[in-house]
Amino acid sequence: MRKVLENCSLSDEERMDALESQLKETRFLAEEADRKYDEVARKVVLLENDLERAEQRAQTGQTKIVELEEELRVVGNNLKSLEVSEEKISAGQREA
């Protein structure tokens, strides 16, 4: 009976050693996962900030495009007016 109990005790100790090893490995993996999560979370925050700045630059660029298109339209109209005026002047000089 004593031998049976000793064998059971030895078996339990071996099992406890294996479980402790598994526990250490699992804790290591959990700490590694936490570290990676923190790193990814930090990168996400940086990327969100970059995205916000890029969206602001894009909006500013769109506004500038609209302004330049309007300015180009005005310059085009002025050029047409100048061409018409030049034609009138040239026509008036030919008649005179």
What does this structure look like?
The termini are far apart. The chain has 1 helix and no strands. The protein is mainly alpha-helical and 96 residues long. 98% of the residues lie in helices and 0% in strands.
Describe how the helices and strands are arranged.
Elements: H1 2-95
Percentage of residues assigned to helices? over 70%
Q: Quote the average pLDDT.
A: 95
Oligomer: single chain
Count of DSSP-assigned helices: 1
Q: Give the H and E element order.
A: H
Shape descriptor: rod-shaped
Structural class: mainly alpha
**Sheet of most strands:** none
Low-pLDDT runs: none
Rg from Cα: 41 Å
What is the distance, rounded to the nearest whole angstrom, between the alpha carbons of the first and last residues?
138 Å
Number of strands: 0
Question: What key phrases describe this protein's structure?
Answer:
96 residues; mainly alpha; 1 helix; rod-shaped
Summarize this structure briefly.
Helices cover 98% and strands 0% of the residues. With 96 residues, the chain is mainly alpha-helical.
